[in-house]
Design brief:
The chain is an all-alpha fold. The protein has a domain of about 25 residues. It contains 3 helices and no strands. The longest helix is centred in the middle third of the chain and has 32 residues. The two termini are about 35 Å apart.
């Protein structure tokens, strides 16, 4: 968003609309995977959790 703002002058309304749209798109894209991850955790599906951890190179918080 900062790159876009640097190239073009966006008004406050346009910036707000762009932020809201971006937020909505991200939420839509992450909704199903997040639900599946929560279900896997509740079921104790460690195979899926380990696979995702490796795929996204996640580390345990200490």
């Amino acid at each position: 968003m900062n790159k876009l703002s640097a190239r073009h002058t966006l008004g406050e309304i346009e910036q707000k609309v762009l932020q809201d749209m971006s937020h909505s798109i991200v939420n839509k894209l992450l909704s199903s995977p997040t639900k599946a991850l929560k279900c896997a955790a509740e079921r104790g599906d460690t195979e899926l959790l380990v696979s995702l951890s490796e795929l996204f190179r996640l580390e345990e918080k200490t």
